[in-house]
């Protein structure tokens, strides 16, 4: 049996575009495999990968294939307008047989145990939800899905079997009335897991609804960073890099990541917007001002980690395990 294509999550893979398929209007899926025929690293539903293309652009995409199939990974990419360079390159330049640099899977949207699941997907947000549906079915856990789209022809993967059952509600903006999320979701219990991915307005509405739900019931993944107001933290603060034995000063308008890199401390990073989790760093001491779009309320309160590309300090000093 072929061996895994990578032994460490810190390594980068060079994978081949095995196939490309148009899944909906402006949505292309890519199947990526190891050119040498090796098995790809294992992953669980909710994971994403970083893709670096030949034009130097790096973007994050959710894995939407079957985790049991380690011969290839599938991602789906929406042609954004305007594009920052990633989707335009995929749709206009990338071709079958081309090579791309890919990270090992990263998962900040893991499917945690529950007695029942409620899934809400908006547009291309269906991608991380698909493996979750398969996993819930495999475990024998009841689930419901609301899949929302502006136009029927823009909704990818409608031909997949897991979207054809009675547990799936398709809401197409050109054919159906707007879904009342409050009525459809109902009242989640402590045994309910609500998972959502899609446009900012939909996720913001769900976060507002979840204020009356049991704590931790809602799990969201954002493709775009949340909108925050002006920082309420310190204008200038010190960051102690404990393992590197260095101290850097961070002024307003600069990021912790930027100042650490200027001091010669290399930190893995990717999106620089607080949505991918690559720069997550352990906090030893101090009070972070969390400005990321990943951590749950409980994780923010614990202050165990922070995303140093966007988050700051509430006080004048932070000690990080770096």
Strand-helix topology:
Blueprint lengths: L11 E13 L2 E7 L14 E5 L5 E5 L10 E6 L7 H7 L6 E5 L12 E7 L3 H14 L3 E7 L18 E5 L8 H5 L6 E6 L2 H10 L8 E4 L14 E6 L4 E6 L4 H7 L17 E6 L2 E2 L7 H6 L2 E3 L4 E2 L3 E4 L2
How would you describe this protein?
The chain is an alpha/beta fold and 322 residues long. The protein has three domains: 12-103, Elongation Factor Tu (Ef-tu), domain 3 (Beta Barrel); 116-221, Nucleotide-binding domain of ferredoxin-NADP reductase (FNR) module (Rossmann fold, 3-Layer(aba) Sandwich); 236-320, Ubiquitin-like (UB roll) (Roll). Helices cover 15% and strands 31% of the residues. It has six helices and 18 strands. It has helices at 86-92, 126-139, 181-185, 200-209, 256-262, 297-302; strands at 12-24, 27-33, 48-52, 58-62, 73-78, 99-103, 116-122, 143-149, 168-172, 192-197, 218-221, 236-241, 246-251, 280-285, 288-289, 305-307, 312-313, 317-320. Strands 4-3-6-1-2-5 form a six-stranded antiparallel β-sheet, with helices on one face. Strands 9-8-7-10-11 form a five-stranded parallel β-sheet, sandwiched between helices. Strand 10 (192-197), helix 4 and strand 11 form a beta-alpha-beta unit.
Q: Overall 3D geometry?
A: globular
Following the backbone from N to C, one meets helices and strands in this order, namely EEEEEHEEHEEHEHEEEHEEHEEE
Low-confidence stretches: 1-9
Structural class: alpha/beta
Helicity, as a percent range: 10-25%
Strand order in the sheet with the most strands: 4-3-6-1-2-5
Number of helices: 6
Beta-strand portion reads 25-35%
Number of domains in the coordinates? 3
What does the largest sheet look like?
Answer: 6 strands, antiparallel
CATH level 4 superfamily of the largest domain: Nucleotide-binding domain of ferredoxin-NADP reductase (FNR) module
CATH architecture of the largest domain: 3-Layer(aba) Sandwich
Termini separation comes to: 38 Å
Give the radius of gyration: 20 Å
Q: How many β-strands, per DSSP? A: 18
Q: What is the level 1 CATH name of the largest domain?
A: Alpha Beta
Under CATH, the topology of the largest domain can be stated as Rossmann fold
